[in-house]
């Protein structure tokens, strides 16, 4: 079974803090994704990575950056957290970028920025 | 830009009733459509994936249909149980990218 884990289930930070969200997958998947989920808006793609050290912007990359130094680990970084980044953050991975492949999701990190 | 809509946003039914969840999308040039389940405070679990060339997929009590030309999919859950209570999300794939609906939250009353 694919396992995608996220470092924290709940996180509370202050405005202006630098925040790191970590995601690890154990199935040697090539691709990893970061989404945020807000009520009424569904999931929106922030960034994805198709290889180590490679990254692509998604629909809403502003205010975020990512890092992928190892294949199994994908980090989302909020350089200076703001209250409008309060959200549920979900990480996912997939073996292939091909459209036949499904994504496997982690349990999510609920981030509150005060 | 792909837009995915799920109606209704919430649904409450008595146990044993069949569930019908709807999903519509604006760009019919999709590669596949997936239905996911999300339990409160949890991640997403893939339920069914329908390729663009398929009309439906079945898994146990779940059946999903796809009408690509009209931009619609329906998820049927037969003989609902309290354990089916969750949020169900629909997502379509254009190239590598998944576009999600906001979900339908289902409550099955015992």
Folded structure, characterized:
The complex is a heterodimer of chains A (114) and B (110). Chain A has no helices and eleven strands. The mean pLDDT of chain A is 92. With 114 residues, chain A is mainly beta. Helices cover 0% and strands 55% of the residues of chain A. Chain A is globular. Chain B is mostly beta strands. Helices cover 0% and strands 60% of the residues of chain B. In chain B, the strands form two sheets. In chain B, strands 2, 4, 5, 9, 10 and 11 form a six-stranded mixed sheet that branches. Chain B has a five-stranded antiparallel sheet with strand order 1-3-8-7-6, with no helix packed on it. The termini of chain B are far apart. At the A-B interface, strand 5 and strand 10 of A face strand 4, strand 5, strand 9 and strand 10 of B.
Short description:
The complex is a heterodimer of chains A (114) and B (110). Chain A is mainly beta.
Largest interface: A-B, 26 and 25 residues
Query: Mean pLDDT of chain A, nearest integer?
Result: 92
| C-alpha-based Rg of chain B, rounded | 13 Å
Radius of gyration of chain A: 13 Å
Structural class of chain B: mainly beta
Shape type of chain B: globular
Structural class of chain A: mainly beta
Pattern of helices and strands of chain A: EEEEEEEEEEE
Largest sheet of chain B: 6 strands, mixed
Percent of residues in beta strands of chain A = over 45%
How far apart lie the N and C ends of chain A? 37 Å
Mean pLDDT of chain B: 93
Give the DSSP E fraction of chain B (strand runs of 2 or more residues): over 45%
What is the helix fraction of residues of chain A, given as a range? under 10%
Shape of chain A: globular
Tally of DSSP helical segments of chain B:
0
> Helix count of chain A?
0
